[in-house]
Design brief:
The termini are far apart. By secondary structure, the chain is an alpha+beta fold. The model has no long low-confidence stretch (mean pLDDT 94). It is built from 16 helices and 13 strands.
């Protein structure tokens, strides 16, 4: 049994409390939500999250933070950023033991909110700047992380196909920005990003667990948010005009396994309730499942790919297809992929295949209910989209999808981009 309670702490600061006894812990996330205006913000907000996560005035280093969390019976804490369509979320994620599992119903709520308040509003600073060694350490760590993405050839292919497909420079990049962005960022710029976050970002506080509602409302009021003119959010979903011609790019590298990535435009976003679920099922049938056409026909039956999968982004109106292949099989794999899409568009799949895919999708969402982190993310996304995304809603939406709906969604796919990372060291190229 669960109940929900929503209210506004201050203008532009929303609270959503899901009261339930499902987990032994209480999940809390404070999300600062910003509509992205430049690609540099991807790096600056990621770097800011790393700095704020690692120290504060009260907890000057990671060791002090770890000790405090241990004091709070093994509470967990982290900060991260994520990109959801046009929006960037800088999240402070915290979990602590629910009162019912402590002696005499002891509550860690007050101390937990005080801890988060110190982290968010009282960072470790020196002469109006973030502690220089903390700034440099976090910047170095993130530059190495970005280098690691490029070193992973599957990730490199993904970044390249995005740069080729998207018109918008923000969407072209990783959610964390580029190595060059980190090189150019200054301490002063990150301080300005921090101040902008506090004063202008919309804020979503999401709490899930077994707590007293009035106690929660009282304690959350201790967060030191100031009244300010916070920027309103516009459209979360990113979309771009479909292109008349397919853009193709090949890059040759001395690697053994080649990567062929394709992007299809799909003008169905997360706001289109019925067609959204049709697109979800269509993608699972195409390449989002071990039972999918790409997996069964490209990888298994023809043995043409080391992996062959698809993913649907309802916040960016696209379907991405990723494969790992031998370079000499490029033309055959491309033809096979197009054949699978044509099969969906022509309805050349059985009702039994469709039913199995729907069961798999529903079971996957059922498993997500057992994960506190997944449940919390689902609630935040639901708030951003202003539509229910609970298990029952998603189950009903998936179950209602018909073969005709899948065909209708597949028919709207428009091939846009091909990126081929061609390996010089493929065995067949010797």
């Amino acid at each position: 049994m669960k109940s929900e309670f929503n209210y506004e702490l201050k203008s532009g600061i929303k609270v959503r409390f899901i009261q339930n006894k499902q987990f032994k812990s209480v999940q809390m996330m404070v999300s600062f939500i910003h509509e992205l205006e430049s690609e540099r913000e991807l790096a600056s907000r990621t770097l800011l999250a790393g700095i704020l996560e690692s120290s504060s005035a009260a907890y000057p280093n990671q060791h002090a933070i770890t000790l405090k969390l241990a004091e709070l019976y093994g509470a967990t804490f982290g900060a991260n950023t994520e990109v959801e369509g046009n929006l960037n979320l800088l999240n402070f994620v915290y979990s602590f033991v629910a009162p019912g599992y402590l002696a005499a119903g002891q509550s860690l709520l007050d101390e937990s909110v005080d801890f988060l308040n110190q982290i968010i509003f009282h960072p470790r600073m020196e002469n109006g700047m973030f502690k220089p060694e903390i700034f440099e350490r976090q910047r170095t760590n993130l530059k190495k992380y970005i280098q690691g993405i490029v070193d992973n050839k599957q990730s490199e292919a993904l970044v390249n196909v995005q740069r080729l497909y998207f018109d918008d420079s923000i969407q072209q990049n990783t959610p964390y920005g580029t190595e060059d962005d980190y090189q150019k960022l200054t301490n002063q710029q990150i301080v300005a990003t921090y101040e902008q976050m506090l004063q202008q970002d919309q804020v979503q506080i999401t709490v899930m667990g077994d707590l007293d509602r009035d106690s929660l409302k009282r304690v959350l009021s201790r967060f030191e948010f100031q009244e300010s003119n916070r920027k309103p959010l516009h459209e979360i979903c990113y979309s771009q005009t479909v292109k008349d011609q397919v853009e193709v790019q090949t890059k040759v590298e001395p690697v053994q396994q080649s990567k062929l990535d394709l992007v299809y435009h799909l003008p169905i976003d997360a706001h289109q309730n019925k067609m959204f679920y049709a697109a979800v099922v269509m993608n699972a049938l195409l390449g989002g499942s071990p039972q999918s056409l790409l997996f069964q026909n490209v990888r298994e039956k023809s043995s043409m790919a080391y992996y062959a999968e698809s993913s649907y982004s309802a916040l960016r109106s696209m379907v991405l297809i990723q494969t790992g292949i031998q370079a000499t099989n490029h033309d055959s794999v491309l033809m096979l992929i197009k054949q699978q899409i044509a099969a969906l568009q022509q309805g050349a799949f059985s009702i039994d295949q469709l039913a199995k895919i729907k069961v798999e999708l529903i079971n996957e969402r059922q498993r997500m209910q057992d994960s506190p982190a997944s449940s919390l993310e689902q609630v935040v996304l639901s708030e951003l989209l202003d539509r229910p995304l609970d298990y029952e809603t998603q189950r009903n939406g998936i179950q209602a999808v018909t073969k005709k709906d899948v065909v209708a969604a597949a028919t709207r796919l428009k091939f846009q981009t091909e990126f081929f990372l061609k390996g010089e060291m493929d065995n067949d190229n010797d």
